[in-house]
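quick one, 207 residues, struct below
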Amino acid sequence: MSKTLYLASANPGKLRELAALAAAYQVTLAPVPRYGELPPAREEAASFALNALKKALHYSRFTDGFVVADDSGLLVEALAGAPGTRSARYAHTGRMAGPNATDEDNNRKLLKELESVPEEERTARYVCVLVLARSGQVLGVFSDYCEGLITRAPRGSGGFGYDPLFFFPPLNRTMAELSIEEKNRYSHRGKAFRKLLDYLQQTKVVS
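---
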């Protein structure tokens, strides 16, 4: 079988980081063929798992290969779990219409919402759910998380999304201050993707 996995995402940051991790397993990660030309999957479920499941099933019907879809985001305790499944469009006023908000827009809104929250209450969790599918059939579901704190100002130039604001206490740095190798080791997405790659290696689904 092919040693290529197709990622159902147009996010260059996700592709760059996960491709580096896949390479260590001798697996190539590429975008779903013609991803931008395909009808989009609607991500309007209330859970990361359901959104990832919808995307994986949807895009796996457009290729014969193995498709990986993720839904991930930030949960802030002081905001009752927001932005949650709306992490990518947190600053966008419409629920589904129009383009997603930019990372900078989302970060500004998050800082504004947490402006009066003291340091000890700025706890947050990154969550990721990955679904592996082929030809409209689910082959596996993998998830993980990462605990941290929200800073009062962006730090670092790496990563994407909320990484400049997500402080990771074990390394005393934000996710945007980590190398790709460090982020893949400790992040929610990196840990979930390693579970998926370990599964493929053990079951020889992709060999």
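The chain has one domain: 4-203.
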